[in-house]
Amino acid sequence: MTTFTLNGSEVSLDLDPDMPLLWALRDEMKLTGTKFGCGVAQCGACTVMMDGMPRRACVTPMSMVEGAEITTIEGMEGPVVAAVQSAWAAIDVPQCGWCQSGQVMSATALLEMIPNPTDSDIDNAMAGNVCRCATYVRIRQAIHDAAATLEG
Ligand code: FES
Ligand code: FES
C-alpha cells in the first residue's frame, strides 16, 4: 500500500511498488493529463510535481512516492500556473498538445524559482521537455510573457 497526497487529497493505492507513478496516475486514477512519451526520462511528457519539484513520473516507482506530495496538471493552481496557461493560450503554443502539460509543469517550476528568467535560464530549465512539433520559440516567448504578467 502506498499512501501519498495527490492534488491535495490523501490517497492509498495497493499497487506493485515497482510500478511507475505514471501508470498509477493514468491507469488507476484516470488522470490522463500527464502523458506517456518515451518512458525513460528523456522527453518530459510525464512531468509532475513531487514535493514541489518537477519529476518524471515514468521513472518514479510507487515505492518512492510514499508520503510524497504529488501534483499533476489537473491539480495545478495559483497565480504562476495561471499566468503560464494564459500566456500559452494567448500565443497558441500547443500544436498537437502531447508534450504540453509537461511543458507547463516545467515552465511553472522555473517561474516559481526564477521570476524573470533569461533566455538561457529558460533553455536550461526546459531542456528536458522535448516537443516533436518544435514549439520551442513560442514556449520561450510564452514564459517571458507570463513573467511579465506576474511582475505586473
Ligand atoms: S515519458 Fe517520462 S520522460 Fe518521457
Ligand atoms: S505540441 Fe506536439 S509534441 Fe509538443
TrEMBL record:
GO terms for molecular function: 2 iron, 2 sulfur cluster binding; metal ion binding; oxidoreductase activity. Pfam families: Fer2, Fer2_2. The keyword Iron applies. Coiled coil: none annotated. InterPro entries: 2Fe-2S-bd (IPR002888), 2Fe-2S-bd_dom_sf (IPR036884), 2Fe-2S_ferredoxin-like_sf (IPR036010), 2Fe-2S_ferredoxin-type (IPR001041), 2Fe2S_fd_BS (IPR006058), Beta-grasp_dom_sf (IPR012675), Diverse_Oxidoreductases (IPR051452). Keywords: 2Fe-2S, Iron, Iron-sulfur, Metal-binding, Oxidoreductase. Residues 1-76 form the 2Fe-2S ferredoxin-type domain. This is (2Fe-2S)-binding protein. The lineage of its organism: Bacteria, Pseudomonadati, Pseudomonadota, Alphaproteobacteria, Rhodobacterales.
